[in-house]
Write a structure and sequence with these properties.
mainly beta, 13-stranded antiparallel sheet, nine-stranded antiparallel sheet, globular
């Protein structure tokens, strides 16, 4: 089984040559990311904040980020039952550092461009997500305000390099299990999020990596028998020999698990899937109900992503050997192929 190296000592992320000082995973963001420490051309730096708020019926997503030579402000809403979907996006050419992305996941964002206004107001125990967009010929105006609470501190943080590229790295934090309360209004219709059924996710990423990449990722948050439960799984991106990004969360505690394998394309993306870990801690069946497929091309950026939402059923084993039975648990998993 793969070695799981836990980072426990705080300090800078990169050394004077722009190389990772520590590699592995952590349950808190202990390493300090500084854009000025990166030893790479500015057009190779990638930074983004992605928030998602989801319940069993619909999902709201916000993205603010850039690959230096191209950036995006995006708000997306979709409903699983009938495929109703609204996208509003502003693409930014050659933004470089103009978005002023925060250097930690505790930093807020306020940006307004091209009829899209997004604010991430970060506080100690909550995050307030706001957006407003102007109406266009293709889409009505969107307005949203959602508060996601942080009842627990544990998360999954990864610091990994790329083989044969010593100055390329990926520093990522994914925060899940955040109960959500708020609304999104699209035209004249209003959709509510309530904290007993809706949960938020942050995917915070910073780094420098090769032009062509591919990854598999999955995440879910919700209640199992009244207890707050979540998971993060993934593989295929960077040199993860020091640690995997696979983690279970139960009642605020983080439980590290080893390698989880899954093939989303086999027999078609919407076919049932099987997820299995080599340590027996994550054994799930997944039934997709919605494919949030995206494909984009702008300048040198080419991306294709199948983001599958559906229900997980099976069992997980915590680090203290307790087993948790999971049934019809709403979550997602994705396969992303990128050139950016």
């Amino acid at each position: 089984m793969r070695m799981q190296t836990e980072i426990t000592n705080p300090g800078p992320l990169l050394d004077k040559d722009g190389v990772l000082l520590q590699r592995g995973y952590a349950t808190k963001p202990l390493l300090e990311y500084k854009r000025s420490d990166i030893k790479a051309p500015p057009w190779r730096i990638k930074e983004w904040d992605f928030y998602q708020v989801c319940n069993d019926d619909y999902c709201l997503q916000f993205t603010v980020g850039h690959a230096a030579y191209a950036g995006t402000l995006t708000v997306t809403f979709f409903r699983f039952s009938d495929g109703l979907r609204y996208d509003r996006s502003t693409m930014l050419l050659l933004p470089f550092g103009s978005l002023n992305m925060p250097e930690s996941s505790d930093g807020g964002i306020r940006v307004s461009k091209g009829g899209v206004d997004i604010t991430f107001d970060v506080r100690s125990d909550r995050r307030i997500l706001k957006c407003s967009t102007t109406a266009t010929a293709a889409a009505p105006a969107i307005e949203a305000e959602v508060t996601i609470m942080r009842p627990h501190d544990n998360t999954i943080v990864m610091a990994i390099p790329f083989e044969e590229f010593p100055r390329k790295f990926y520093y990522n934090e994914k925060i899940s299990c955040m109960p959500a309360n708020g609304y999104v209004r699209i035209g004249d219709e209003k959709f509510l999020f309530e904290p007993d059924s809706a949960f938020g996710l942050l995917d915070w990423g910073r780094g420098v990596w090769p032009y062509s990449t591919e990854w598999y990722w999955g995440s879910g948050s919700g209640l199992v028998d009244g207890a707050l439960f979540g998971f993060n799984i993934g593989y295929g991106f960077g040199d993860s020999s020091a640690a995997s990004e696979n983690m279970l969360f139960y009642n605020g505690e983080a439980h590290k698990i080893n390698e989880v394998t899954f093939d989303l394309a086999e027999n078609g993306y919407m076919s049932p899937k099987v997820f299995s870990s080599d340590d027996g801690a994550f054994e799930m069946e997944f039934t997709p109900i919605y494919d949030r497929y995206t494909e984009e091309k702008i300048l040198f950026v080419k991306r294709k992503c199948h983001m599958l939402f559906g229900h997980f059923s099976g069992r997980v084993r915590l680090n203290d050997n307790r087993e948790i039975v999971v049934k019809d648990f709403m979550a997602f998993t994705e396969h992303s192929i990128n050139k950016w």
